[in-house]
Amino acid sequence: MAEMEETELETATQSEKEKPAYNRKAFKDMSIEGKLEYLTIKPFYIPNIIVEISTSEGAVVGMVNKVTNGKVLVSYADQLGTAEINSEEIVPIRMKMFSRFCKNRQSTQAAPLKGF
């Protein structure tokens, strides 16, 4: 009986060692899909992050609200309204600032997308 418990304990210890440690990447090193996931599914204590999303048609500066069916819904940082962008059209996503600092920021305008 004691031998079985020791074997189970050794097996559990080995499986814990074999599991890779959670490896967090820097935001700039993530893929576009990884960045979108990070921006939409984050702990409550992390404030909203203002990002610049560039496409071939222009750029949008704002906060990513949600991603559904390949569409990214972004709230503008410095004006009312939202933009919907196809996730396939996104070239880079760059982090600009945290939303709690928006009141004292300088202009974050980028070239607007056509049709918005």
Task: Describe the protein in words.
By secondary structure, the protein is α+β, with helices and mostly antiparallel strands. It has a domain at 25-104: SH3 type barrels (Roll), CATH 2.30.30.100. It is built from 2 helices and 5 strands; from the N terminus they run H-H-E-E-E-E-E. It has helices spanning 2-18, 32-40; strands at residues 49-54, 59-68, 71-76, 82-86, 93-98. The chain has a 5-stranded antiparallel sheet. A hairpin with a 2-residue loop joins strand 2 and strand 3 (71-76). The radius of gyration is 21 Å and the shape is globular. The relative contact order is 0.18. Mean pLDDT is 75; it is low at 12-22 and 101-109. InterPro entries: Spore_coat_CotO. Pfam families: Spore_coat_CotO.
Indicate the topology.
Blueprint: H1 2-18, H2 32-40, E1 49-54, E2 59-68, E3 71-76, E4 82-86, E5 93-98
Antiparallel strand pairs: 1-2, 1-5, 2-3, 3-4
Pfam families: Spore_coat_CotO
InterPro entries: Spore_coat_CotO
Region (Disordered): 1-21
